[in-house]
Amino acid sequence: MKLLRTGYFKNIFNQAILVLVAQLLPIIFSPIITRLYDENAVAEITGLISFSSILLVFSSLKLENAIVLEKNNEKAKQIVVLVVLLTLIYTLLSFFGISIFKNEITKVFKINKVINYVPIYILSYSLLNILNFWFVRVKRFKLKAYSKLIESISYILFLISLYYIIGYNHFGLALGKIFGVSIALIILYKYSALKLKKTRFKTFKSILIKYRDFPLHNAPSNFVNVIGLQLIVLFIGIYFSKENFGYFGLANMIILIPISFISQSVGSIFFQKISENFISKNYNQLKKTFYQTLTLLTMIGFSAFLVIYFGSEYIFTTVYGENWLMSGKIAKILSIVFLFQMTISPLGVLLIAINKVKINAYWQYGRFVFMAILMFLLLNEFKVSFLSFIYYYSFAVAFIYIVYLVIMIIELKKLK
Question: What contacts 253, CB < 8 A, 6 or more positions away?
Answer without folding.
Answer: 26, 42, 45, 46
